[in-house]
Amino acid sequence: MIELVSEQRCIACGLCVKVCPTNVFDQIASGLPVIARQEDCQTCFICEAYCPVDALYVSPFADMEQDVTEQELEAVGLLGSWRKTIGWGKGRTTLAKIDETPFIDRILPSS
Ligand code: SF4
Ligand code: SF4
Hints:
Layout lengths: L1 E4 L9 H5 L5 E3 L5 E3 L10 H5 L5 E3 L11 H6 L5 H5 L9 H4 L5 H4 L4
Bound molecules: iron/sulfur cluster (SF4) (2 copies).
The site of one iron/sulfur cluster has 13 residues, from helix 2.
């Protein structure tokens, strides 16, 4: 569940507001997103993946709120960790590029 927007990191690009499939955020006049409907969060991590400055934290616990502070998340390197894990961001290799899952076209008999 989405838990935190870092006002210090956010550059008010509005991407998280646009990509959230369940309209969890509102964008206030300053451009900052606010978590307006946390209960609608699907824990899909899309907002965190798209945020270009690692300003969001989505907790893996989908059904319960987690009490976190920005300082705690920074200390353990969790801000932006999902984006890093999936290889999004400049100079990174995406998981899709290294995926070796045998899709159907790769396992069909040759004749
Ligand atoms: S994790 Fe998914 S559903 Fe939740 S706020 Fe982010 S984009 Fe929206
Ligand atoms: S995607 Fe990140 S930088 Fe852009 S508005 Fe959302 S939190 Fe701020």
